[in-house]
């Protein structure tokens, strides 16, 4: 416990951590201020007009769907053109969301409509924060001799490293929770006072809660990955270099090569796909190669999806593997 | 006396792609007994710091047996870690932390009362600078802070690697007094240093390492005595004539500047008598005792190429028969 308390104090006292917190608050303040400045409470006539436009938009969608169904009934059986392909895609009931009044209120912030995208922004920042702080926390300590100092006091390598990792993850969890609650509460207040709260029903909160929960897990995984790579490479820069190299070599170069050699479902081989799938619950990818064998036999969307469960498995295995490797290497490493 | 540190046959090899395999410590032995202030000497790259790091579990030894306060190290080192204060090389501290905060964090991590921080800052002369950031400290002040960190635990065994690094003469003297006072209070001290005069002043025992092997060990006086050639510096009016007279009396002598050096003198009155009987009156008769520096340089081979810059790995390889171990006997 003493070790964790000491590590917590060291972590909080680090200039880099303090700088990142200031940046977080700054980005938060800028976002809130610009949102507040660009929003106003809608008048009754604006609301009525927006509601009317939303009703018309929904009616238009229904009309388009009905027209499609009518054309489908009239077509000859031999006609397989895509124009008649699948009216179900136009069915309003099957849309992710239908037009609502808030869509027709320019300059009015709607909390219900924008909370999720705002939360994604916060999660992206916290993921970056966690990765950089995780890497620098152990990287700087290994490089400066801080770990050696600590081991002279507590010559239990795994305990010391686990205390550092545990402190990092615990701190990141608390910071992320506090930041996200403060962040969402601020925008909720803006919605109430200078915009629209929107429809804040159970579906909204459960959906936002799911994104929030998945985001927190991603922040912790990113922190652990930064910590593990910096431990393996003994430097903060090892983690930054590894991620930059992965992004350039695999996500960009590898993707290009896979395209050239016609590999099917190449997005499944990219870590970014799993991050997206985990965060959003499901990611859909388009691959025309999937339709190569179905020509002439019917409609093929060329879409495939990744869901959160396999995405979580991949992310956990990767993070777990790196962390176990970091502990195994640190246990035997010569600290010179 | 009970052994506080025991090292037997320690061997450590480093491997790297660039420089290949390098034996840093090659079957090294060390014995430090309770209450000793034990000097640990060796040229740069001889294996001192690697030995201390291995002893403290910071590097993994290839082979050998080590114990600290009776516990096998590094396996059971945690059992006695609370009684061992150590600094290895010049420890680096976070520049943005104050000296006080640096020690407070270590105290907290080690379960030491935070009140001890002020005591050790006072002990190493940093009491008034404890609230300054470490980055504002001079090299000597950082070294004092490092020693303070080693003293925090109120240790039974203190291991100090080059504690005088960066200290001014007054600081070196204070460090010497500190070690003496710790030793007087029953703390066993193992100190490695390049400042041989200091080691000779504060240490009662010494171990000298060269190229990873022990070349001398034992009480300082006895190690020095092993290299005493019983030489005397003699000043007389006619040095050349004096040399002839001494040769005639079976006393090897040679002119050295304006004086002469006589070797193998068991009784210095012989010199006075031989020269006085021939009317040459001795103006000065000074014994030339070996000091630790001359013994160190001789044992580690640093005298071999006076006109060529010596490289860090140029120290001599010890021969088994040449090893002096006054605790265990010559050649042990």
TrEMBL record, chain A:
Keyword Membrane in annotation: yes
Q: Does the keyword Transmembrane apply?
A: yes
Which Pfam family is one of those matched by this entry? ABC2_membrane_2
GO cellular-component term (any): plasma membrane
List where the protein spans the membrane: 16-37, 118-140, 161-191, 211-232, 239-261, 308-330
MF GO annotations: ABC-type transporter activity
Keywords on record:
Membrane, Transmembrane, Transmembrane helix
From what superkingdom does this record's organism come?
Answer: Bacteria
Record protein name field? ABC transporter permease
TrEMBL record, chain B:
Superkingdom field? Bacteria
Instruction: Using the record's annotation, list all stretches that form the ABC transporter domain.
Output: 5-236
Q: Which Gene3D superfamilies match?
A: P-loop containing nucleotide triphosphate hydrolases
Tell me which SMART domains the record gives: AAA (SM00382)
Please state which protein family the record places this protein in: Belongs to the ABC transporter superfamily.
Q: What is this protein called?
A: ABC transporter
Check the record and name the PANTHER family matching this protein. ABC TRANSPORTER, ATP-BINDING PROTEIN (PTHR43335)
Give a yes or no for keyword Amino-acid biosynthesis in this entry.
no
Q: Which UniProt keywords apply?
A: ATP-binding, Nucleotide-binding, Transport
Q: Does the keyword Transport apply?
A: yes
Query: Listed GO molecular functions?
Result: ATP binding; ATP hydrolysis activity
């Amino acid at each position: 416990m003493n070790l964790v308390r000491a590590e917590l104090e060291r972590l909080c006292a680090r200039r880099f951590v303090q700088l990142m917190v200031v940046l977080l608050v700054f980005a938060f303040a800028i976002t809130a201020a610009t949102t507040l400045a660009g929003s106003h409470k809608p008048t009754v006539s604006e609301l009525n007009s927006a509601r009317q436009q939303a009703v018309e938009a929904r009616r238009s969608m229904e009309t388009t769907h009905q027209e499609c169904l009518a054309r489908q009934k009239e077509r000859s059986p031999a006609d397989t053109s895509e124009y008649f392909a699948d009216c179900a895609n136009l069915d309003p009931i099957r849309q992710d969301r239908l037009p609502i009044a808030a869509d027709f209120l320019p300059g009015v912030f709607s909390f219900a409509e924008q909370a999720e995208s705002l939360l994604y922004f916060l999660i992206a920042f916290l993921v970056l924060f966690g990765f950089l702080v995780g890497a620098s926390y152990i990287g700087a300590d290994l490089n400066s001799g801080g770990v050696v100092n600590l081991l002279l006091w507590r010559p239990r390598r795994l305990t010391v490293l686990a205390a550092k990792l545990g402190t990092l993850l615990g701190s990141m969890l608390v910071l992320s929770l506090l930041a996200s609650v403060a962040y969402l509460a601020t925008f909720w207040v803006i919605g109430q006072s200078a915009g629209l709260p929107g429809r804040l029903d159970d579906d909204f909160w459960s959906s936002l809660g799911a994104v929030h929960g998945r985001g927190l897990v991603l922040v912790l995984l990113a922190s652990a990955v930064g910590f593990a790579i910096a431990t393996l490479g003994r430097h903060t820069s090892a983690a930054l270099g590894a991620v930059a190299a992965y992004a350039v070599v695999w996500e960009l170069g590898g993707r290009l090569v896979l395209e050239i050699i016609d590999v099917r479902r190449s997005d499944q081989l990219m870590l970014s796909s799993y991050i997206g799938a985990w965060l959003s619950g499901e990611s859909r990818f388009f691959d025309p190669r999937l339709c190569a064998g179905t020509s002439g036999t019917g409609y093929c969307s060329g879409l495939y999806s990744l869901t959160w469960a396999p995405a979580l498995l991949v992310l956990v295995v990767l993070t777990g593997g790196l962390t176990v490797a970091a502990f195994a290497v640190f246990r035997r490493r010569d600290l010179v | 006396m009970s052994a506080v540190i025991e090292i037997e046959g320690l061997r450590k090899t480093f491997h790297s792609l660039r420089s290949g395999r390098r034996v840093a410590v090659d079957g090294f032995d060390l014995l430090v007994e309770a209450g000793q202030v034990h000097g640990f000497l060796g040229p740069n790259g001889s294996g001192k710091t690697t030995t201390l790091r291995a002893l403290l579990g910071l590097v993994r030894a290839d082979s050998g047996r080590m114990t600290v306060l009776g516990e096998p190290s590094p396996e059971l080192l945690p059992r006695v870690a609370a009684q061992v204060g150590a600094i290895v090389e010049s420890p680096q501290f976070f520049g943005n932390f104050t000296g006080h905060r640096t020690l407070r964090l270590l105290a907290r991590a080690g379960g030491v009362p935070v009140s001890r921080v002020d005591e050790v800052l006072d002990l190493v002369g940093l009491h008034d600078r404890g609230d300054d950031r470490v980055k504002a400290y001079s090299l000597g002040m950082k070294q004092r802070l490092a020693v303070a960190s080693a003293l925090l635990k109120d240790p039974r065994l203190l291991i100090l690697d080059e504690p005088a690094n960066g200290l001014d003469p007054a600081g070196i003297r204070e460090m010497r007094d500190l070690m003496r006072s710790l030793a007087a209070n029953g703390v066993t001290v193992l100190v490695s240093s390049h400042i041989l005069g200091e080691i000779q002043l504060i240490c009662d025992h010494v171990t000298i390492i060269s190229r990873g092997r022990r070349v001398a060990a034992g009480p300082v006086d006895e190690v020095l005595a092993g290299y005493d050639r019983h030489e005397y510096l003699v000043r007389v009016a006619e040095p050349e004539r004096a040399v002839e007279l001494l040769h005639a009396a079976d006393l090897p002598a040679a002119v050295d500047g304006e004086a002469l050096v006589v070797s193998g003198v068991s009784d210095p009155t012989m010199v006075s008598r031989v020269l006085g009987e021939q009317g040459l009156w001795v103006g000065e008769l000074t014994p030339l005792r070996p000091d630790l520096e001359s013994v160190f340089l001789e044992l580690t081979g640093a005298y071999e190429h006076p006109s060529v810059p010596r490289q860090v790995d140029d120290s001599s390889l010890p021969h088994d028969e040449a090893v002096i171990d006054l605790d265990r006997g010559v050649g042990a």
